[in-house]
Design brief:
Creatine Amidinohydrolase; four-stranded antiparallel sheet; globular
Length: 294
């Protein structure tokens, strides 16, 4: 069985057992309105943190700001206390994973440095529904190699979302991500995947960032997914640190992560984790092409 934990990205071996006999839950129109509300809220948190990232800031400061925003809006930080399969509870509102850390990093008091990259993954629960989103942000000026890694990860996210139409297949999502990532020679993390989302943070189906077109479950209107490519400059292999949560690249090379919560509608994919301003700038159209812009 693959090592690791589940939180922002669900561990693939665990997920195959967890989701093996579970049905994908389609959301009603009322459910969708609640998903839109929580998606917009967590997007506001994400963009606030994006603006805070600079050399000298600590991930603990980012965590405090995120938790305050979530609670002030009447939501619950979904990650705090999350305890899958007998693990120690996750202690923070966000996952803060810099440089070679892939996912599930702990916030701390070490200042970020010029040239770092930082993945910030976050989720909150509002009116019984969960919104989940992540981004990788440069700290000051970064190398061209890291700029490309972040850009391609965001492009993979957009390409994966574009596959989320009724009657397509879950395998189409991973295939689109894989094809683009492999053009650049990146290692696609296989130990952790995307997932369905709704009343629970992790619902069926498991959504790997690799696959074959036309395979896996049929996509239907009303489904909600968290799509989240994780790309490494080097090997796709991972290891988990002694805190039992933080996942790093096995070779110590940098990794990037991007995530949106989306809804499948009859008109195609709708990105739920956009701010009001982002929606206005798109003229009310939150289609997949906007994923790269967030």
């Amino acid at each position: 069985m693959v090592r690791g934990s589940i939180l922002g990205g669900i561990l693939s071996a665990t997920a195959s057992v967890l989701f093996g006999s579970r049905m994908i839950i389609a959301k009603s129109q009322k459910d969708m309105e609640k998903m839109r509300a929580v998606g917009e809220l967590i997007a506001e948190v994400r963009e606030t943190l994006r603006a805070m990232v600079k050399p000298g800031v600590t991930t603990l400061e980012l965590n405090v700001a995120a938790e305050k925003m979530m609670r002030d809006a009447g939501s619950i930080p979904t990650f705090i206390g999350y305890k899958p399969h007998g693990m120690v509870p996750f202690p923070y509102a966000i996952c803060a994973s810099e440089n070679e850390k892939i996912v599930h990093g702990f916030s701390n008091e070490t200042p970020l440095k010029e040239g770092d990259i930082i993945s910030l993954d976050m989720a909150c629960t509002l009116n019984g529904f969960v919104g989940d989103t992540a981004m990788t942000v440069p700290v000051g000026e970064i190398s061209d190699e890291l700029k490309q890694l972040i850009r391609v990860t965001e492009e993979c996210l957009a390409l994966g979302i574009e596959q989320c139409w009724p009657n397509k297949r879950v395998g189409d999502i991973g295939a689109a991500i894989q094809a683009h990532a492999e053009k650049y020679g990146y290692g696609i993390v296989r130990d952790y995947t995307g997932h369905g989302i709704g009343r629970s943070m992790h619902e069926a189906p498991q959504i790997p960032n690799y696959g074959r077109p036309g395979t896996r479950e049929k996509i239907r209107a009303g489904y909600c997914f968290a799509i989240e490519p994780m790309l490494n400059i080097g090997t796709p292999e991972t290891r988990t640190l002694d805190d039992k949560w933080t996942v790093v690249t096995k070779d110590g090379k940098p990794s990037a992560h991007a995530e949106h919560t989306i809804a499948v509608t009859a008109e195609g994919p709708e990105i739920l984790t956009l701010t009001k301003e982002q929606k206005r700038s798109l003229g009310g159209n939150s289609a997949a092409k906007s994923a790269v812009q967030t």
